[in-house]
Specification:
The chain is mainly α. It is built from 4 helices and no strands.
Length: about 90
């Protein structure tokens, strides 16, 4: 396993981490380890931001195109006899 040293961490941050660790019945090291593990595997915020950026780009590219509301497309599909397999 690797070791990481974090330098120049503000004293108030360390104090908050110690309080958090104490509330969770963990050592400071255990609390920081858990936070780092979660941060390393939790990239949902990054994925969400990337999705929003892609959505904005697509919206901008298709802004001048005529858009058909979804309910119209669904009605047309149902009128042709296509239904969900329910």
């Amino acid at each position: 396993m690797a070791t990481i040293n974090v330098r120049q961490l503000a004293d108030d941050v360390v104090d908050r981490l110690k309080r958090r660790a104490s509330l969770n019945n963990r050592s400071l090291e255990g609390e920081v380890r858990l936070l780092l593990e979660r941060a390393a595997y939790d990239d949902m915020a990054a994925k969400h931001a990337a999705f929003l950026e892609a959505s904005d780009r697509l919206r901008e590219r298709t802004r001048s195109r005529r858009q058909t509301p979804a309910e119209v497309l669904i009605r047309e599909d149902r009128d042709r006899g296509h239904r969900d397999n329910v």
